[in-house]
Amino acid sequence: MSNRTLGLIMIGAGAALVVAGIIGTVASDGEDGQAAPPETTTAPAATTAATTAPPATTNTPATTTAATTTTTTATTTTSAPTTTAAPPPPAETIDAFVDRFAAAIGDADTAFLFERLHPVVFERHDPELCRTFIQREILTLVDYRLNGDLPEPTPRTYATPAGTTRIESHYEVPVAFGFGGDTFEVTASFAVEDGMVLWFTECR
Predict the structure, then answer these.
(1) Taking Cα atoms as reference points, which of 116, 172, 118 lies closest to residue 148?
(2) Residue 92 and which of 28, 58, 99, 140 are 20 to 30 A apart at CA?
(3) Is the CB of residue 187 less than 8 Å from the CB of residue 171?
């Protein structure tokens, strides 16, 4: 018998002995007729700590809305006031001037009567002669008044040392007055220039 065969036989015999020992041990433990209580190994309860995760807090950066203030500047347009030129006063009428002429005689207002002489009179006569004439004769007239209807203007040409002067707005107006105790009905000469009535006379 070789050494290898002998070794295999011994290994088999050893294994049989181990099995017989295990069986014997089991049989001796059950001789009292009581089955050995199964060995209970109480595993400690696994304690699972319930960890309540805090609610996830998401810090969302606050959105700051900047208040936009729109400032509207009120634009005030100041219009320059429109200035309308006042219409010229109505032209002095012949009948109104005759009334003023009569009042000036009554008030001995030589200045008014002199200022209202037409310029052509001063071209024909010396101004001082005319002033004296007014004081000596015109201021002695009484009850000077219109003596009929007002006519339409009739252009007239006056001869002067420098030539002739044509008056377009010339009026030949019937008037009456008292002088030296007598009443006279004559035609007086007037003109309307620049809205003002002027009169004519022959200074002497």
Answers:
(1) 172
(2) 140
(3) no
